Amino acid sequence: MTESKLAVVILAAGKGTRMKSALPKVLHKIAGLPMLGHVIRTAESLAPEKIIVISAPDQVKQFRSVVGKHEIVTQDQQLGTGHAVRCAESALKNFTGDVLVLYGDVPLVRAETLKELLQKKSGHTVGLLAFKTEHPHGYGRLITTADRVHKIVEEKDASADEREIKLCNSGLMAISAPRLWELLAALKNDNVQGEYYLTDLIAASGDAVFMNVQDRGWAHNELMGINDRYQLTDAENVYQNRHRWDVVMGGATLQCNYSVIFSYDTKIGQDVVIGANVVFGPGVVVESGVEILPFSHLEGCIIKSGARVGPFARVRPGSVIGTDARIGNFVEVKNSDFGAGAKANHLSYIGDAAVGESANIGAGTITCNYDGVNKYKTDIGAGAFIGSNTALVAPVRVGNDAIVGAGSVITSDVPDHALAVARGVQKNIADWAKTFFNKEKK
Ligand code: UD1
Ligand code: CA
Known about the structure:
The termini are far apart. With 442 residues, this protein is of the alpha/beta class. It has 2 domains: 6-223, Spore Coat Polysaccharide Biosynthesis Protein SpsA, Chain A (Alpha-Beta Complex); 243-420, Hexapeptide repeat proteins (UDP N-Acetylglucosamine Acyltransferase, domain 1), CATH 2.160.10.
């Protein structure tokens, strides 16, 4: 069997009024990535010739950064799903092959499922993705025999008997071009909503097959459509469970799986152990053998193998925590590079810094990296020891194997191997306290 060529059209022109939001519906995020971004990533993994996003005119600007290099076509008026697909016709003028229609608000569909659908469709005009549910309210219902679908009836147009049907239209389908354009041109809008339904193309084609995801042993929730914020939280849960599954099956341990939140792009290595209530923002890579203790928040960072982070640590973008390094409780690290075996175990802020191998940063150390206008770098040499409660006023360098005395405010460079002490000299006044107490307590 030769594989047919593929183009993807993503419908996203809907306003999504039920979200009650100023933000277009498909830009609401799941695991830190807009729904539309999820659909685009999945579409990209199918390596189609083209990906075209259908947008309302006033959403184009906001869509651009999510859509990237792919084409956006505007649908000036929302006259229905059939009309929306038709908007892509001129962008696909000479294309012959399968046009896969995806929805911006059905973000959890997996590439594997779509590949199977395309296989199922081969040799037919239309292939449709379907699912069964005990709660079919709102979905189009399938009229079928065996694997053939003869017709889809929208809920609003359905008879009482048809509403009993539990087999539903996911909306996602593949259709042969150029036949698609002929079928769309012939659509009528003589239905309750007065819209051009993409679903009417099923009956018109006379040659549509369907695939029920549950027949493949897959969960139907990958076809869930997001219309309101409750469904958005539901979809977030479905996504998180999927990511947790991938992480643990990849050889990591989640001590309390439901409390760990991943970003869509979080990468976790083997033999990583993650405690409860750990949250990953975008762009985190955790190498093998790392331990992340409870209540830590990580974003835009690399944690190298054998390192330990937390509990209650915050690692912010631009940070690299070196091999076997230690970032302990109430330590915040931003845009800083920790060398192998370096430690900041308690109560510190390390920003815009380079920390050499095996350096030890005492409790309460602060890099004063910002003067209210500009940011400056702090450089801490390999093997350096920073005493507790030190303020390192950047730009500043502490040399290799140097020591900074506790409570110092360091404003100029410390040479390699030196001791720097920068604080008031202690003075003891004999019997001063005795005199004081005798007077006050009498
Ligand atoms: C549609 C299907 C229904 C299916 C359901 C699955 C039709 C007629 N009905 O119904 O059978 O069970 O999806 O979720 O196709 N859109 C546009 N332009 C338009 C209209 C819609 O881009 O003019 C986009 C929306 O942004 C959305 C998608 O198409 O991403 C689906 O539209 P929506 O109005 O939500 O269709 P449903 O009523 O849910
Ligand atoms: Ca919908």
